């Protein structure tokens, strides 16, 4: 089995006894409320999706990622994973003390072992990660809207938030056991952009000529039911999986992940994530994780030349895989 | 951002041997070569022999069965 990125698979999900103990100890500690994207980040850190990250990035890793697309220990990493708070919130938090991370209802999600609070330059972050500070770019708009101070530190997850997609959600530990059970030594990760469709056949089928199995893993962004885009994507994937060939050669599980729209950098990020799930290969289509016309259609493929030490093989498809039946 | 570096000592004969072996390769310097080799060695040393133990694996298999992923 391919080693995880880093190479340890992080596990920071507290078991029942630990959860009771930590919840007791954190009573009365300051809370920071997370939005849905940050909750996804916390869960992805805790379950090993973002291995080797064990928490939110500190200043040194943040700047290394911005400038060199690597963590400070030189391991490839292209997207900053950060937690932002406003100055008022930051002032009441003390480095070295724990902070409770809570959901929008105020329920505890995780504990942050706060190591560092630091200032940063949002425009620099947008320019270096996204290649633009244009607020019309959805990723740049999000970065430019981040709060003033970043918090860093390891986290421990109390519980994963309930999701209507729980039945189709697997952790990297689970997919690794699954691939092993299926006897797959090589697996191609395929994260469809939107709904899987006929136009992607030229990518998925050749990938199976190189690998034992395909990991079809659509991204759903929202935890709420009734989000049309997510439900259509899932329904389409389920339909694909009814085909006897796909049943034999593919498995499907969703990933909850906030989109950064970072084009090439995000393509590498997807590769690192899929490596943690146990994929040996990843399908990179044209304009992966792009936004409008901000990136050259093949920028998300060309960037891989800068990462000979990635540890997962990218499979590049140059053709136009847009849905032929979609306007 | 500037990287910080420090100096370490290795025998000159070993230095020359490395210099010879990386000539014509994509490795630009002896320092890069040593940094890469040491990093790989450290990564291996840090790696867990197994991602999880047998008991965890059995629990995961039960969940995968319950979800219909395996028989």
Q: Can you give a write-up of this model?
A:
The complex is a heterodimer of chains A (327) and B (71). By secondary structure, chain A is of the alpha/beta class. Chain A contains 12 helices and 13 strands. Helix content of chain A is 33%, strand content 17%. In chain A, strands 1, 2, 3, 4, 5 and 6 form a 6-stranded mixed β-sheet that branches. A 5-stranded parallel β-sheet of chain A has the order 10-8-7-12-13, with helices on both faces. A two-stranded parallel sheet of chain A has the order 9-11. In chain A, helix 5 runs antiparallel to helix 6. The N and C termini of chain A lie far apart (41 Å). Chain B has one domain. In chain B, 58% of the residues lie in helices and 0% in strands. The longest helix of chain B is centred in the middle third of the chain and has 17 residues. At the A-B interface, helix 3 and helix 7 of A face helix 2 and helix 3 of B.
The number of helical runs of chain A is 12
General shape of chain A? globular
Query: Whole-number radius of gyration of chain A?
Result: 19 Å
Biggest β-sheet strands, sense, barrel of chain B: none
Indicate the structural class of chain A. Answer: alpha/beta
Q: How much is the radius of gyration of chain B in Å? A: 22 Å
Sheet-strand content of chain A, in percent, reads: 15-25%
Q: Spell out the helices and strands of chain A N to C.
A: HEHEHEHEEHHEHEHEEHHEEHEHE
Topology:
The complex is a heterodimer of chains A (327) and B (71).
Chain A: H1 16-25, E1 31-33, H2 36-46, E2 55-56, H3 59-68, E3 83-85, H4 87-91, E4 98-102, E5 108-119, H5 122-130, H6 138-144, E6 149-157, H7 172-182, E7 187-190, H8 201-210, E8 213-216, E9 219-220, H9 228-240, H10 244-249, E10 250-252, E11 255-256, H11 264-276, E12 281-284, H12 299-302, E13 313-316
Parallel strand pairs in A: 1-4, 7-8, 7-12, 8-10, 9-11, 12-13
Antiparallel strand pairs in A: 2-6, 3-6, 4-5, 5-6
Helix pairs in contact in A: 5-6
Chain B: H1 12-22, H2 30-46, H3 54-66
């Amino acid at each position: 089995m391919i080693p995880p990125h880093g190479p340890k698979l992080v596990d920071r999900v507290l078991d029942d006894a630990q959860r009771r103990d930590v919840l007791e100890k954190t009573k009365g500690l300051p809370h920071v409320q997370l939005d849905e994207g940050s909750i996804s980040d916390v869960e992805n850190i805790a379950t090993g999706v973002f291995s080797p990250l064990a928490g939110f990035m500190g200043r040194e890793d943040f700047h290394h990622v911005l400038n060199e697309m690597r963590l400070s220990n030189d391991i490839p990493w292209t997207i900053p994973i950060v937690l932002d708070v406003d100055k008022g919130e930051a002032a009441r938090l003390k480095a070295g003390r724990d902070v409770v991370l809570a959901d929008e209802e105020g329920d505890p999600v995780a504990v942050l072992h706060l190591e560092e609070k630091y200032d940063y330059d949002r425009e620099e972050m947008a320019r270096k990660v996204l290649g633009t500070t244009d607020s019309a770019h959805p990723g740049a708009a999000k970065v430019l809207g981040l709060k003033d101070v970043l918090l860093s530190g390891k986290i421990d997850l109390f519980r994963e938030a309930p999701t209507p997609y729980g039945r189709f959600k697997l952790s990297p530990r689970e997919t690794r056991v699954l691939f092993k059970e299926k006897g797959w030594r090589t697996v191609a990760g395929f994260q469809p952009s939107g709904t899987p469709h006929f136009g992607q056949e030229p990518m998925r089928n050749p990938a199976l000529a190189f690998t034992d199995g395909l990991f079809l893993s659509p991204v759903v962004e929202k935890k709420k039911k009734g989000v049309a885009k997510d439900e259509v994507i899932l329904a389409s994937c389920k339909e694909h999986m009814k085909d006897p060939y796909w049943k034999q050669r593919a498995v499907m599980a969703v990933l909850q992940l906030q989109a950064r729209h970072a084009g090439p950098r995000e393509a590498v990020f997807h590769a690192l994530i899929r490596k943690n799930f146990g994929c040996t290969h990843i399908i990179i289509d044209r304009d992966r994780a792009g936004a409008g016309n901000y990136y050259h259609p093949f920028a998300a493929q060309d960037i891989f030349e800068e990462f000979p030490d990635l540890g997962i093989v990218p499979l590049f498809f140059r053709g136009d895989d847009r849905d032929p039946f979609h306007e | 951002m500037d990287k910080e570096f420090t100096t370490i000592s290795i025998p000159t004969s070993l230095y020359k041997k490395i210099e010879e072996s990386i000539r014509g390769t994509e490795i630009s310097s002896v320092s890069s070569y040593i940094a890469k080799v040491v990093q790989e060695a450290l990564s291996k040393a840090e790696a867990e022999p197994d991602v999880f133990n047998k008991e965890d694996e059995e629990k995961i298999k039960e969940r995968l069965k319950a979800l219909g992923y395996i028989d």
